[in-house]
Amino acid sequence: MKKLFLLTCAIGLLLAAPARAVDIQEVTGSKSGVKAWLVEDHKLPVVAMHFAFQGGSEQDPADKQGLAALTMDALTEGAGSYTAQDFQKELADRSITLGFGAERDELDGSLKCLSEDKQQAFDLLHLALTKPRFDARDIERLRARQLAAVRQQFADPNWQARYALLSHIFAGHPYGQRHLGTMRTLKAISRDDIAAFAAHHLARGTVTVAVAGDMTAAELSAALDKIFADLPRRAQLAPIADAPETADAPTILVRREGTQTDLLFALPGPKRDDPDWYAADIANYILGGGGFSSRLMQDVRDKKGLTYGVGTDLSPSQHAGLIFGQAAVDNPKVAEALETMRDTMRRFHDDGPAAREIAAAKDYLTGSQPLALTSTDKIAGVLVAMQRDKLGRDYLDRYGDIIRGVSSDDIDRAVERWFDPDKMTLVMVGKPEGVAATQTRDAVKQ
Amino acid sequence: MRARAALLVFGLLAALTGNARAAVFYPTNFTLANGLEVVVVPNHLAPVVSQMVWYKVGAADEVPGKNGLAHYLEHLMFRGTANIPPDEFSRLIAAQGGQDNAFTSYDYTAFFEEVAADRLPMIMQMEADRMHNLRITPETAGPELRVVLDERQQRTDNDPEGRFIEKLDHAFMPHYPYGRPVIGWKREIEGLSAADAQKFYQSHYAPNNAVVVISGDVTAEEVMRLAAATYGRVPQGKVAPRRVFGPAPQPRARELTQIDAGVEQPEIVWRFAAPSYATQKDGEAYAYEVLAEALDGGEVGLLYRKLVSESGAASSVETSYDPDARGQTSFTIAASPRPGVDYRKLEKEMRALLRDSADQGLDAAAIADAKKRLQRSAIFARDGLMMPGYAFGMALTTGHTVADVEAWPDRINAVTADQVNAALRDLASTPREIMGALLPDPHASAAAREAAQPILGHGVGIR
Question: Alpha helix (H) ranges present in A256-370?
């Protein structure tokens, strides 16, 4: 059998040219004043628009948790003269995908259609934003769907772990609330609450818009006015304070019957605008963000076979930054898995990453950049995030230099500051053997 | 993660398979001298290329007692070759900014990578390498078997819904390959050896049993040249024959109930026997695809309108149908009863609706709308890199051709209202049907206690 000349070739490719830049135009609606970023591409007859309004589930009153999510769901359920059925049929008949959702800090929307249908699609979006009907019968249907979704969460150990973790770390802060609400708070939401939430939060002064696909700048300028000009200029946002870092590092056990224990931990992490964000991103890639290449995956999965998957993620929000880590482990192996994870993290924190690991992380982060831009949807999503995070239109061109410019001192500083396993808040959902918890609670079922 | 089993793939693909209004994908395809089939779909939206390598083997091709072997081997494909040390495969791709993964299903096993377009030669070489140079050693085979067992725990044993679906399919298709889990029964996984994997590899992994689909910022000429230089050097293998499917199975029961203390929200799943592209006569499978769209179709479908919007017995309902199977396949309806509504009431309404619709026939306009939606979905399938890989990979590993994929919109267009209504009548009357109910434990469940009182205020009653 002939051997392939694989490794030589791989090394040669390290020097390959960087990806082509994406041409981003800034477009303004003259009447609405709304600005949008556009990547024009006429190869396919498809248009994708993404947008985000400031203020998400964090805006839910404590006794009406789930309000933002329910309101967003209801926007596409009838508007103007269209009943919910008529509105949905208009979308379906033209193959227009239009949807809204509530994130923690923002209200998201996306639209995708064939370019020949874009005017009708923009008309429907305009109606959804400015004249939603919120008919009582439809609200009850959507409330029932959200109640069922809340109940489904109860069976999901990941959700149980996440809720136990966030409600501890963000006790008393809106980030500790439940995005879909509780059985009780969902029932407390009235039609008036929904109408007021939409009126207060859908504003043209706080919206970020991006479009990719078969559309010109002139068409987009007119569309921005058509869609957004009738919205109020200002949103009425409840002020949200920055969340303080937790002082303790407890181990919380959530009792659940099952063969495995879900482990979820959090460390204080960087916000997106932190000067050491990129250093933290590189460090996280090496420890647990790099999929099959990460230290945690190598140590816990590949060498010991203790889990199917283990990983860490940076999770920046407007008012707090966290680093999450998770794994699912058979009950008898939890102690060994935790010890291995802590040991890997301890060595990472004390010794820092090796030069070759930093080089590999930088190669991945710079090389994978174009993979985020392979469809009109993905491009529009990236463009909204770039605007929200104030990265500048030339960010994609600068990104490679930013990553390459991060020094090993920068990374050591980030590791020292954010990757200390002693600061870990840990939640275990299941019946772990041989591990002591500082707090124990039952799974949430309400 | 590595090795998604059947459900995920089917969910993703129900809408995508073969989405190709005549010449939508504009593929170029060719076969190398060693038998490898290659399909190329240029797409210049971004300077990126995706590669999918499909093998014509899956869990359905396993021999009795070795359930889970196809999936185990999929994992081992990442654990080193004569040229690549164990654990280096994904790392080499990541070092180039690329991503890779794989999945196993009943009728195929697929591996894929996405990288910047100028890295294509590297990933073609790497896949060609592990097509014939795989090294399975005790040092990697042991830990990897534990990883597979961990995966089974995570997906199935520790997940009420995972356990439920596994039991349901086993009861629905007993003594049939699709009635066994792709990931394998725990006891059989535990008995798998490195030698089993080696034998399976040698009898199924070869260029003459594989399909490569490359989609992205490339030209067909470039891929032809690279394919000759990489895959072209892999020798032909002696491939074991595929499983011959026996007669369609008879369900072990009409109903399966799982009461689970961890569950608060009941879920109802109906499975009906249905023809696949491989077993159909006269284009029936295309009629079933139109039927699935007419019944589901988001909020405009018949089931949602009647059961959710009008009666309120359900809070959600959806259909799925997977025609890309070598044997008999299934048509699925899944629903959640509205909180406060007994699932038996939902069952009754669902059955009455199916029966009445089958008797009266679906509205011709609804069928025409569903056909139009499906045909238009083909245009969206070109927006992104992975869809051609799925469409051609699934077709070519289950006995169909590039032309079949490209003709899909025309075949959907050719479906008549009579065919759709015939499919609906078959569905409503087939004795090969099962209903599964995943239910809360009334003694443990907070929600079940609460269900005694109506929980929907604001003037809307529960009918």
Answer: 277-284, 295-296, 334-351, 355-367
Chain segment A157-171, per-residue pLDDT in tens: 999 999 999 999 999
- The DSSP call for residue A79 is B
Q: Is B72 left (phi over 0), alpha (psi -120 to 50) or beta?
A: alpha
Cβ <8 Å between A366 and B97: yes
SS3 B317: strand
Facing A3 at nearest CB: one of B83, B309, B458: B83
> Which region, left, alpha or beta, applies to residue A358 given φ > 0 means left and ψ of -120 to 50 means alpha?
alpha
For residue A247, is pLDDT > 90? no
Decide if A158 contacts A328 (C-beta within 8 A): no
What does the H/E/C string look like for A97-166?
EEEEEECCCEEEEEEEEEHHHHHHHHHHHHHHHHCECCCHHHHHHHHHHHHHHHHHHHCCHHHHHHHHHH
A328:B264 CB<8 A: no
Task: Enter the tokens of residue B83.
Answer: 């040229």
User: Rounded mean pLDDT of B44-51?
Assistant: 94
pLDDT at B269 over 90: yes
Give the pLDDT mean for B13-21: 38
Residue A86 tokens read as 């008529």
Q: Diameter of chain A by CA atoms?
A: 74
Tokens of B2: 């590595």
For the stretch B63-89, pLDDT in tens is: 999 999 999 999 999 999 999 998 899
| Per-residue pLDDT, B3 | 36
Least Cα distance to B275 among B294, B291, B259, B299 occurs for B291
Rounded to two decimals, what is the model's pTM?
A: 0.91
Measured between beta carbons, which residues in chain A are less than 8 angstroms from residue B300?
A: 85, 88-89, 92
Spatial distance between the Cα atoms of B124 and B231, rounded to a whole number of angstroms = 7
pLDDT > 90: what percent of chain B? 85
Cβ neighbours of A443 in B, within 8 Å: 262
pLDDT at B260: 92
Instruction: Report the distance separating Cα B147 and Cα B8, nearest Å.
Output: 19
